[in-house]
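ok trying this again, last paste got cut off
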Amino acid sequence: MLRKTRVFIMRCLLTACGVMAFFVAPAHPLGPWASFAFLWGGYLLVMVGLGIRLWASLCIAARKSKAVVDEGPYSLCRHPLYVGTTLIALGAGLCFENLVVFLMVLLIVLPVHLAVAIQEEKHLRELFGEAYDEYCRTTPRFWPSFRSYREQTELNLPQRSIRRALIDATAVLAIAPGGQLVAILHQTGVLPAVWHF
């Protein structure tokens, strides 16, 4: 229930950001080097975030809500999926070379993930008790701690998890080209901007 609510809220809010990207454009487009830096800086964040999300998704796939998962990315921080999603969202904001979209993403993703993480932790504390409390004492919520890294010894992957990971990865990889296309359409006047900042 909590996951479905979070996903629904995030999709609605990020769809609003996407719509904003189509109709809001910078009054003075970036020069070629700044554009290159924003695009590739954003793409780097998207790729790192995607890697973290894929790793975390596959690590927890068969064990979610069945055990305290404290290996792999979950030994670095308690919510690597949210860290990955945040990096993807911030990278997407940069790829669109649009400060308004970047700030909207920042102001949406961070509070939503923090609120959901707190609720999730409450649920997991009720589910696993002292084992989860100990995990919380030794593992930071979001900022990774590499000194506590533990390798995952085995990986059990349901086919559904692999399919979902591939679909997510395909959608995420379309962000940078999509951002570039919108910028080109704004610059050529094909896609008129309703508001310039």
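PB: full thing came through this time. Residues 99-128 form the longest helix (30 residues).
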